[in-house]
Design a protein that fits this description.
alpha+beta, single chain, 109 residues, elongated
């Protein structure tokens, strides 16, 4: 009984390995946030949001939507989607603009 009381959740077999791995390797939420921050620092345009996050073999591919040219009315502003590739630790490997569009424009179906 005393052994059970002294044991904490971090003492569980295998728990430390998962916790340690998680602190090194970002999940989808962390990857999305890191992609937004790193892209904004490089291109000096404010990110509007993340439209896709995909785990790839060696990290993450994140699609970040960015406001490139603000206009009035807002529906005529120009936005772009950038594809940002992060390594397994969340460091930027590369980015590229894959699409540019008017805010009010619909995608081709």
């Amino acid at each position: 009984m005393a052994e059970r009381e002294r044991r904490t959740s971090t003492d569980a077999p295998g728990r430390g390995e998962r916790t340690g791995r998680r602190s090194r390797d970002p999940g989808p939420e962390e990857a999305a946030g890191q992609a937004r921050e790193r892209l904004a620092a490089l291109i000096s345009h404010p990110p509007e949001g993340v439209s896709a996050v995909c785990r790839v073999e060696d990290g993450w591919r994140v699609s970040v939507d960015v406001l490139e040219v603000p206009r009035i009315p807002d529906t005529t502003s120009l936005l772009a989607t950038y594809e940002v590739n992060l390594d397994g630790h969340g460091e930027l490997r590369e980015y590229r603009r894959v699409r540019r569009y008017r805010r009010g424009a619909a995608d081709d179906c």
